[in-house]
Every structure is written in C-alpha cells, then in structure tokens.
Write a structure and sequence with these properties.
Layout: E1 4-5, H1 13-19, E2 35-38, E3 65-75, E4 82-83, E5 87-88, E6 90-91, E7 94-97, H2 99-113, E8 128-129, H3 137-147, H4 154-161, E9 170-176, E10 182-186, E11 196-200, H5 201-206, H6 220-223, H7 232-242, E12 248-257, E13 262-268, E14 279-285, E15 289-291, E16 294-296, E17 298-303, E18 312-313, H8 316-329, E19 353-361, E20 364-369, E21 376-377, H9 398-403, E22 405-408, E23 423-425, E24 429-431, E25 434-436, E26 446-448, H10 458-461, E27 486-489, E28 496-497, E29 509-511, E30 519-529, H11 531-542, E31 549-550, E32 561-564, E33 570-574, H12 576-579, E34 591-594, H13 596-611, H14 619-629, E35 644-646, E36 649-651, H15 663-667, H16 725-736
Antiparallel strand pairs: 1-28, 2-27, 3-30, 3-32, 3-33, 4-5, 6-7, 7-25, 8-21, 9-10, 9-19, 10-18, 11-17, 12-13, 12-14, 14-17, 15-16, 19-20, 22-23, 24-30, 25-30, 26-29, 31-32, 33-34, 35-36
Helix pairs in contact: 2-11, 11-13
Biased composition (Basic and acidic residues): 1-12
Biased composition (Polar residues): 682-704
Domain CRISPR type III-associated protein: 74-213
Amino acid sequence: MAKFNRDQHPSDKSSNSSHDARQSKGNFEYVGAPYNFIDFPRRWVARYDGFEQLPPHDRYGDGLLSGSIDLKWKAETPVFIGHKEEGFFRNHQGFAIPGSSMRGMIRSHIQILGMCNYRDDIENQWFLYRDMASRNQRLKAQYRANLGIVSHNIQSAQQQERGALPDKLKAGYVEKGEDGKYYIFPAQQDKKGVQMYRISERHLRRMKLPPDKVKLMYKKEFWEQDINKLTPQDINKEYYDKHGYRPYYVPVCYTMDAAKGKVGKIVIKDAVSAEGQMEEGYLLSSGYMYAGKSGKLTHYIIRAAEENIPGRAIDKTYVDAYNTDLIRKKYKGNERLDKEYEFYHLPEEAGRRKPIFYVETAGKITYFGFTPYLRIFYDYSVHQGIPQAFRAGDQLDYCKSLFGFSAYPSSNDGELAEPDAVQAYKSRISFEDMQAVGNPCEMDPIPLILAEPKATAYPLYLKQPDAPSTGELATYNEPNFTIRGMKRYWFKEEERLEKNHKKNDRILSYLRPLPKDTYFQGRIRFSNLAQDELGLLLWAIMLEAESKVQIGKGKPYGYGRMKLKREEVILQLEDLAIKYGSRLTFASDYLKPGCPEKYIQAYWKYMQEKYQIDIRQEPHVQSFLMMAKQVLRNEQVRYMEIERQANGEKNNEYKGLHPLSSVKDVVEGKVVRRATVRRSNKSSGSSGITENGGKSKSSRSKTVTGCEISATDNHNELQVKDLPAWKVKLMNMVNTGKND
C-alpha cells in the first residue's frame, strides 16, 4: 500500500506556524480515520408545515428579503475541483470553483446549523459481508450460523479442512427469465444428497484439461520450488503477475469413484458427449483467495440442473443489493462492466444459465453468489439506523425550503408519494462560480489514491458502545443500530505520496490543483427570504472567526482547505420601494448595505423563541464548529493501513475494529483506543494475551478459528512449529496431494 510523506514541505513552513495554536492539545493518538461524524440533531425543526406556506417565486412577499452576498476565500492548502484527467475547472473567465460545488458545501452547513432532516440524502443501501476470521466473535458466529458452518472446536475444524462445505449451502443454476426476474434451479443430488464436489488443484492438473477452458491457479514449476522459501507475496505474485488467473466456469462430463465417493475422470463437454457412466455438470473456480494465513486452491463441480423442479425467484431487492455490492466491491464504484469480473455477474440475457451457490430459508432464496463462502446480506439496510424521530414527517425544514426540491412529499421509507400528489419547488438561493483572482497556475500533477470511505466499515459508521469489546460492536445485523450522522473530514496539512508510489499506478489519480494562497471570489443571490432564513444562510457561510471550510477532491489528504475573508463579505439588500417605484432608477440605486451579524442573531433569536432551542449550545452544532476550527496533525488523521509499520512489525490496522472517538474527545486529546489483541505465531512454548487479558496456554496445536490452520500430530500432517500456518498448509498439499 502506498504511504504518505508525513514531513512538512518546505513551502508549507510559513503556514504551519500559523496553525500551531489551533492544533489539538493533549495526546496525539491516531484517531482511526481522516474523518469523523456530526451526530443527528436531537430533534429536527420544521420551518414550514406544508407546501402552501412556502414563499412564492412570482411575487415578493411582505417583510421578505432579496439581495446578494459577495464573498472572497483564501486557499490555505492546494485546491482541486474538476475532472482529474482534464485539470482544474474552468469557465469562460478562467479557473473557478463551480457554483454547484459551493452550493453543495453551504447546503451541508445549513443541514447541520438548521437542525434539518436529511434522511432523504442518505442512500438506503443494503450491504453484504463475509466474516470468517475477524475479531468480532458475534458477527462471525452470525455468519457461520447463516451458512451452517461447523463449530469452532478442533474436531469439526479438521473436518472442514478435509473438505466439508457449509451445511446450508446449496448449488444450482441461475437464469434470467423472460419477465426480467432471476430464478435459481437446484442441481441434482447424488445418492448421498450431494450437489457439488470439491476438486483439488493437483488432482485437476493430472486431468490435463485444455488451458483455455480450465484455468489452473499455479504452474507446475511453482509447486516444484522449495516451499519453505515461499511467502504470501510469492503466492500473490504467481497468481497475478505470472499466471494471469481469472475465475471461470465450463461444462464438463465426469466419472465418480463409487468406493471413495470422489470425482475420477473429467473431460470438457465440448470435446466429448456423456457416455456410459459419465455425469454432466459444470466445473468452476472463483479464484485464489488469500486470507490471512491460508489460501484457497480449490475448484468445484456442480451436478447438472434438476429439470423437474421449478426455479425459485430471487427477490428484486436482493438482486439490486447484489449488483450494487458488485459495483462497490469489484469495480470500486465504477459502473463500467469489465470482462475480468464477468464471472460474478448475474446473467444479462434471458434464458442463459450460470452455476451458482445459494442458501434457502423457508422456501425463499436468502443468500446467493458465485463462491461457496458467500457474501451474505446483513439483516437490515442503512435506513434502519436512522433515528426514529427522523423517519417520519413531511413538514419542510430549512434546507428543503431554501434549496428547493423536485418531489414532495416523500413517504416514511424515502419513496415518493403518489405521482399526482407530488409537487416541486425552486431554490430561493443561487450560487455564481467563485472565480480565481489574478492568473494562478496549476501545480504539477500530484498522485493521490482517491478511495472513498465505505459505510460497510461498521466500527466507524455506526454508533458504538463505550469502550466495547469486539464482540459488542454494533453491526447492521442489530435492529437497534444507529448510524453516526453526517461525515466531515478533519483539517490537516496536505500530504503527498512517497517516491515508491509507482507500484500503485493503477489505483492512482493525478490531480493538478491550484496552489495555496490562491484567492477565489464570487456572489450568492437570494430572493424572498425571511430574516431568520437569511441569518441561517449567512451563518452557514461565515461560521466563526477562526473557522475554515473544505471543498473539492483530496480532502482526506488535506487538500481544499479555505478560509473566508470575513472583512470582505458584502451583504446587499434590495429596497423594493425604490426598485419598483414610479421613477426610473439606475440598477445600483435600489441596493443598500446590510449587516450580516444582525441577521445571524435574528436566526438565533428565532430558534430560541419559536422552538426554545439555544442553537449554539446544541451538541451537534458544537461538534461541527469544533471541526471547522481544528487543524490536526497529519499522523492523527489518516486512513488505516493493511501493513502499518509499528515497533518493527507490520500491523493490519483494519483488524483492530476500533470505533471512532467523538469529535469532542479528539479535539480535547482524550482519544481512547482499545488495545489490539496479539496472538502468538508459535504453536509450542509460547504464551500470548487472550481477549480477556489472561495468559494463553502452551500447546502443540492451534485451534482453527476463521482461516487459521490446524496442524496436529494426530491426522498425519506436518507440525506447525515456527512456520506460519498458511505455509504448513501448502507443504501438506504438496507432500500429500491434498488440499483438504
């Protein structure tokens, strides 16, 4: 994984000193992410009770205000907005921050400061997961129970290593019907009720099947190497670089060894028709899976479809969630289809079938996928975690009434009401582009990994109990989980990749930002705003004296931080009596200056008198304003790393499952992170700290949990001694011809 240079750039020295006083006090503990969350308000405020109360657009209302706000911003770190390949955004006057970007930023501020209900902005995703080896024992147990995976004791773990598949797992074929729905047809069962068979890589190699049909994971030369010299990196290099392995499925004919209950001969169905005792089915493999200390080197045969049993339809909600997960997981959010991942697609043509694995509960398809150890659906979607008070009500909050909406009302589940009842409302605020002042030059291309944080990271995105153990972490399987709120990035100094970034070129984006100290200026126009509405808009723009904002790409790495030139904010209000008086006037004659502070205070007063809310004392507002002023040290606020160097060792920080501390605790230097559990790699003469803090007993064998591999004296396998378990497994496969 690419690492970032934590050192201050020479060009940053002057700016760094100016921020020292605002950097967090107390300890500088790593906080777990470059972002945090602003909680939902304790309640949400309805500014208007219904559509008919909204100010009209075709006439000016008594006591309502119209005018403009002129602004000027200074970039404190480089800023980039635009298409990454084309450079910084330009309009006909030159470089500029688009008005749409400013609109999005100010809108999010109003949602927080206006105590708005932003449930409609939260996508109701339904995530999938696979948990075989994490420290979250409860989630791991739920996963195993849903698939019917055997218990953790050594005996059943050894049975699993010899080839047992999840008890609830079934095999069959998925087909897209003429009606657009997907159906699964079960595979035939043999006399023992088996629908699928595992085939080892070595056994398959002896079949000498055509390489264009059957993709073997490893070449013969690879197996002939000294196994003790192999590392996990060797395996991945062989897999990706030398072999170019891709998942596959192919129709085959095969024979069964009745005495052993195993597959004997295998031939490609294209080359021969089934004769005599040959069965028909599909041979497939989803690919090599490196998971911690073990790897999967297995192919599968699924028996032919049972034609006398009708297919079972898959719920469309499941299909949509599966496709969304595929785009997120395989395509990293890019919806462009790729041949490399075609194996994982549901059939796109009606009548076409593909082999598939699935789980059925009470006659309903509940989980499905193209690997035996399925990614399965959590029990609940994201909207289940929205606080109850925000799930109901169609009154109009400040955000909707100021920025408009395309469809109103919406139902409690976020879906639109009946079409003939839907109404739309145009925004009363418009944003011009913020033009770059002078003639700034783009910086040289800066490589960054623009990975988006994922809400699947439940320790970070869901509210967690205080100082929980990993088994107490809330997940999307608990009916009472709560999402944390609105994500905001911490301010920091900009980072750059180190020189060794080239090995990650395929995941890099090259940005050409405008440098820090660039100024941007522009105008916001408004019409028909009440005094409290104008005050909220001005507060969302100006915040507090030391506040900053962040805009554009690269926020996790410190880019896009800007500060408003408060002394250059110009509020102008239209005098309608002059503007529409009987005499002709020049355009500027009807504009008069206004005092921003007057209207900001009018909003605070309105909230107090109308709703009995001291808005500045609301906890979520205080958290937001804290984050808006705080510049943290780069080392505190970074993404977690898979191989983080610490105390001379590489540590996978994701495995710690550390929840985020609150914004207040981070600012006050009170970050508390649960100690990471360390397990010894040795199987004898070692002691380690267990989850409950006690000493682990010395043992000649390792209990199999997740993907740790059992290696004991009593089933004819090599002992672990000081070797990692994944390497022992490879040794056993090479020496015994097994991968069970």
